[in-house]
Amino acid sequence: MDWVFLAGRVAFAALFVASGLFFHLVNRGMAVEYARARGAPVPEVSVPLTGVVILVAGLMIVIGLWMDLAALALAVFLVLTMVFMHAFWNAQDEQERML
After folding, report:
1. CA 12 to chain centre
2. Which of 5, 11, 24, 93 could serve as a FRET partner for 67 with CA atoms 20 to 30 Å apart?
3. pLDDT tens, per residue, the chain with 99 residues
4. 29 near 63, Cβ under 8 Å?
């Protein structure tokens, strides 16, 4: 049964590791412009910082090191992302709000 939990941890963390590495760090220019367009604070700093946070937290979950702290870091990241980047309640267009 341990292999099921490991597979679940790897599948869960893969999203954050891939996003942190390939979107936040490798394609940083595109990510900064997207964050700037969405009104995120200080995107030149916050994009690479959040990339490192979710990359490290995802890897910590995969290897099983300080998983509580890693899960807390991911939860904080997700709440802040929801508030600053995906604030559908601020959208004026009905179509954009539904998306």
Report:
1. 12
2. 24
3. 689 988 999 999 999 999 999 999 999 999 999 999 888 889 999 999 999 999 999 999 999 999 999 999 999 999 999 888 877 777 777 777 666
4. no
Distances in whole angstroms, Cα of residue 82 to Cα of each of 31, 40, 59, 76, 90: 16, 11, 22, 10, 12
- The structure's pTM equals 0.85
CA distance 24 to 47: 6
Determine the Cα–Cα distance for residues 92 and 76; give it in Å rounded to an integer: 27
66-71 long-range contacts (CB < 8 A, ≥24 apart) are 67/9
Tokens 């990339």 sit on residue: 51
Q: Transcribe 13-80 into DSSP letters.
A: HHHHHHIIIIIIIITHHHHHHHHHHHT-SSHHHHHHHHHHHHHHHHHHHHHTSSHHHHHHHHHHHHHH
